Amino acid sequence: MNYSTKAELIRQHPLSEAAQKYPAHLALQFRDKSITYSDLYIQSRQVAMVLSHRGIQTGQIVALGELSTVEMIISIWACMLGGFITFPLNIRFPKASITAILTDINPAFLISDAPYPDHNAVSFRELIIEAMQMILGDPPSFNELAAVSLLMTSGSSGEVKFVHHSHHNRIESAKGSNQNIQLNSSDRWVLSLPLYHVGGLAILFRTVLSGATLIVPKDKDSILEEINQRGASHLSVVTTQLQRLLREQSGPKILQGVKAILLGGSTIPPALIQESLKHKLPIFVSYGSTEMASQITTTSSQNREAALQNSGKVLPGRELIISHTGEILVKGETLGQGYLKNSKLIDFRDKEGWFHTGDIGYINVQGELTVTGRGDNQFISGGENIQPEHIERLLCNISGILNAIVIPQKDEEFGARPAAFLEIDSEAPDGEEIGKQLRNRLPGYMIPIAYYQLPGKLATDSLKISRKELIKLTYAENKDLHTL
User: Fold this and answer.
1) Which residues contact 333 (CB under 8 A, 6 or more apart)?
2) Does 213 share its domain with 352?
3) Predicted confidence band at 460 (pLDDT cuts at 50, 70, 90)?
4) Longest Cα–Cα distance in the chain
5) Cβ-based neighbour number of residue 11 at 10 Å
6) Which spans in 237-361 are helix H?
7) Would you state the pLDDT for residue 2?
8) How far apart (Å, rounded) are the C-alpha atoms in residues 423 and 403?
9) Do 294 and 288 meet the contact criterion of CB atoms below 8 Å apart?
10) Domain with 179 in it
11) Can you give the CATH number for the domain in which 78 is found?
12) Do residue 291 and residue 386 come from a single domain?
């Protein structure tokens, strides 16, 4: 789509359309409560009108802080109905970091039950009480090309970036996904990813476009319980989540009952794919990015085995090519509008409209994408280029190793040498045995000089483990590091 020449699209808002098409269908299920599409629209519209009454203008940013998940969902749809840009904060960040982000972005409004220094926060309950005292008017006309969301993302550089998406980007992303993974009004998708995560926000649009029900778990440890009790049909997970679910005694059996498990995020260990296929789980492996509003390529139900080698074919509404350097370039209807920096929107496309992902990969003759790693993860050891993901894949093929992250460890002679952080089980071999097994597959300069056990908190609490944080642990000569 040419945003500079195409006229504004004025049509019905997707939530408004869902409320008319599926008024009595359950939009949300949580604990012992539920909300129909009609009620979700009414409540979201109420909050939108209150925000407008308080002086928030179309196109201004509304930040969302510490709220219950249901309050967050209603607030997100309220912003989208009111023409405001929704900005869900990652409340896992330290409070000082969130305060700095708020200062940088300077939102027009902040909805949060927790206060933040120098930023006035209004609770969701206060907005609802105010809405009950108002006579509501009609929301503004729906402009599909208007900015609708702002999400944080950070690459290997560690620099936080803020990605702008339009309604159109979000809708086209959901449409392409729903064409590949069938979703209808009788289905139920578990909200297993946070709403500040691009994959979490994408679920809202997929369910609304299809009239499906969104199941809100009590907490991150209740996903299997929700699937089992509510008959969930769809699930989105990253690698660490699926690993944890499969370790639960009842995990494989419960997961076999769903229609689709969308698996994305960082590098996926082949052993995890093999285990999923062994249990006959309906997995769909995906490659995506925040800039592209979630999925770019995804495997299909017709060829589950493809997940062992690749991330599937390009979904509708997206385009992908491989540059002469092997970098993955993407564009299409789902590509965001740019990065927000210093209150200005910075275009991230090149002259031909392509976004340079920084990922390295190739496409086979069937048009399926294999991602081999990130260009900025590569490092030099004694003059040799090392791609950590190549070593990680081999490590994860060793029995007992559940996950592996290879980082450069400072070395006086070679500049850097590979070191591995491993998540292991009781069957894992020691470091010496791991090295022996790798020597049959790798040249000497690619054999890690140290094997550390991945810190427990990172292994259990993180959706995506930061390589930068692991590098810092080795530089600090952390005495808490456990060597295998």
Assistant:
1) 1, 168, 169, 172, 317, 318
2) yes
3) low
4) 74
5) 12
6) 239-247, 251-255, 270-278
7) 41
8) 5
9) yes
10) 14-371
11) 3.40.50.12780
12) no
Asked if residues 360 and 372 have their Cβ atoms less than 8 Å apart, the reply is yes
pLDDT digits (tens, 9 = 90+) for 348-371: 999 999 999 999 999 999 999 999
Q: Residue for token digits 């997995």?
A: 283
Query: How many domains is the chain partitioned into structurally?
Result: 2
Confirm if 51 and 130 have CB atoms less than 8 A apart.
no
Interatomic CA distance for residues 284 and 277, integer angstroms: 11
For 9, other C-beta atoms within 10 Å of its C-beta total 15
Instruction: Give the residue from 371, 401, 416 where a domain finishes.
Output: 371
Residue whose C-alpha is closest to residue 383's, from 421, 420, 411: 411
Tell me whether residue 318 is exposed, middle or buried, using C-beta atoms within 10 angstroms of its C-beta: 0 to 12, 13 to 18, 19 or more: buried
Confidence check: pLDDT of 21 > 70: yes
Strands of the sheet with 61-64, listed across from one edge: 109-111, 61-64, 85-88, 147-154, 160-166, 338-341, 344-346
pLDDT at 157: 46
The C-alpha angle 331, 337, 341, rounded to 5 degrees, equals 130
pLDDT surpasses 60 at 179: yes
% the chain with pLDDT above 70: 93
Buried b (16+ CB within 10 A) or exposed e, 122-146: bbbeebeebbeeeeeeebeebbbbb
Residue 29 lies in a domain: yes
Residue 306 pLDDT > 90, yes or no?
A: no
- The band of 269, judged by pLDDT with boundaries at 50, 70 and 90, is confident
pLDDT number for residue 3 = 38
Tokens linked to 137: 């008017």
Examine the pLDDT at 38 and tell me if it is beyond 80: yes
Contact between 355 and 330 (Cβ < 8 Å): yes
Q: Provide CB contacts within 8 A for 236, sequence distance 6+.
A: 189, 190, 192, 193, 199, 200, 202, 203, 261, 262, 264
* Cα separation values, 415 from 381, 391, 408, 409, 477, Å: 6, 19, 9, 8, 17
